[in-house]
Specification:
This protein is α+β, with helices and mostly antiparallel strands and 438 residues long. Helix 2 crosses helix 7. The N terminus is likely disordered.
Length: 438
């Protein structure tokens, strides 16, 4: 489907393109913050999965040795489990002589071991403790690491619908953006390894750098790198110092499912973030939505996407889209593509820390063809659903007001920012009121 359209109509055209590629009668995604299932699982199962998601990990569970949090909920909890939070993670690195990104080398244990191959720097460690009183393993950033950023924890609510969007939908969306804007706005699709399907790749959509295409891959990554819990997808500890738990830490229960399976099912069953219905129905917010489209903001903050049909196999054939997620229309106000909007942090994400040593080595040739280096200064478009519930904005949390977040947009979004700035004050306020309704 080829469309020749002016920029002001891009949002409508993209929506038409997306809807045309899906079922003719898509249903609307359920929304809400009620901890109820979207239909992927029954409510009792969903609540049991939520209990796993909220569980506080202990040393006996394999916590650490290096970690950031003791529970998924610790980083994903506002206003309910699965939402975002104020918690941020630290990533660092430096440029090599070839001007390419290099992960840091971080000495621990008084220099007896060096942590390498990961940009993440953990804030916590399990020792020294009673069993290891003389082991100092806390990571600290060396002066050599001149590139650094904080990244806010992401909202996960509604991500089951995001996972169920066909790769081709994102590819077509990126192509249409580029064509319709005369190459001023060109979202980048990154093909990334699907860890549970070694040898398979998919369109990245999860994480600030689109480093994962699958929620199970995402869960396995976070369980190891944020909590230090090894699992079947990420079986290698970051360090063996202070470690006494058997590997992998995450093993199947009596139902045959490991924690990462429960995490993925919990996320897939969450409802999409709900709007403030009272504010959304106001004339000012409605006016603001029209202006949001007219200024071009909706080019990247796409209002509507539709999932692939139920029965479609995704994630390298390891997951079949269930009825509850099939042919569903949802409203993320994001395109889940990578863009350079002037806030990129110069950090490369396609490293073995996200995919595990075995899969990374297996897929290294395919990864090298993706030109990940070109994505260093890009960030995934922040979906705006639920943005009214976040006091800190942008990937680094450095914007405290919606206006400031808009004004930080440069690069591909420079023209749209300028169009916002040129609006009358009352029109600017209408756009801000629309955003407050999301």
């Amino acid at each position: 489907m080829r469309l020749l359209i002016p920029m002001v109509l891009l949002s409508l055209s993209l929506s038409s393109l997306i809807l045309a590629s899906s079922a003719s009668h898509p249903t609307e995604a359920p929304t809400g913050f009620d901890n109820k299932s979207n239909g992927v699982a029954d409510d009792a199962t969903h609540q049991a999965d939520q209990t796993k998601f909220e569980e506080v990990e202990q040393l006996s569970d394999g916590l650490g040795p290096l970690y950031n949090a003791q529970s998924c909920r610790e980083c994903h909890q506002s206003p309910v489990s699965g939402g975002g939070s104020q918690v941020s993670e630290l990533r660092v690195g430096h440029e090599g002589p070839d001007r390419h990104f290099r992960n840091p080398d971080i000495p621990i244990a008084r220099g007896t071991e060096v942590i390498s191959g990961r940009s993440l720097v953990n804030d916590r460690a399990i020792c020294p403790n009673a069993a290891f009183p003389n082991n100092e393993i806390q990571e600290r950033v060396p002066q050599s690491e001149t590139i650094h950023t904080f990244r806010l924890s992401l909202n996960l609510l509604g991500d089951g619908f995001v996972e169920a969007v066909a790769d081709q939908t994102l590819i077509d969306l990126a192509a249409e953006q580029c064509k319709s804007s005369h190459r001023k706005i060109c979202g980048q699709v990154l093909q990334v390894p699907i860890v549970e399907a070694p040898g398979q790749m998919g369109a990245g959509r999860f994480g600030w750098k689109d480093q994962h295409a699958s929620l199970l891959s995402f869960a396995g990554d976070a369980y190891l790198n944020e909590m230090g819990i090894t699992n079947r997808l990420q079986p290698d500890e970051v360090t063996k110092i202070c470690n006494t738990a058997s590997e992998p830490n995450d093993t199947p229960g009596t139902d045959g499912l490991s924690d990462i399976d429960h995490f993925a099912r919990f996320i897939r069953a969450t409802k999409a973030p709900a709007r403030d219905s009272q504010l959304a129905s106001s004339e000012v917010a409605k006016k603001g939505e029209g202006l949001f489209d007219k200024t071009g903001c909706a080019t990247c903050h796409v209002a509507t996407l539709t999932t692939a049909a139920a029965g479609t196999k995704i994630n390298g054939g390891t997951f079949t889209i269930p009825d509850a997620l099939g042919s569903v229309t949802f409203h993320p106000y994001g395109d889940f593509l990578m863009h350079d909007v002037g806030t990129g942090d110069r950090i490369l994400q396609a490293t073995r820390e996200h995919y595990g040593k075995k899969v990374f080595e297996m897929m290294s040739e395919y990864i090298s063809k993706q030109d990940f280096e070109s994505s260093r200064n890009k960030i995934r478009t922040a979906p705006l659903w639920g943005v009214r519930l976040r006091p800190r904005l942008m990937h680094d949390g450095e914007s405290l007001t919606l206006r400031d977040a808009i004004m930080r947009h440069r690069g591909e979004a420079s023209h749209e920012r300028d169009r916002f700035e040129d609006l009358k004050k009352e029109d600017q306020e209408a756009i801000l009121e629309f955003l407050r309704s999301l």
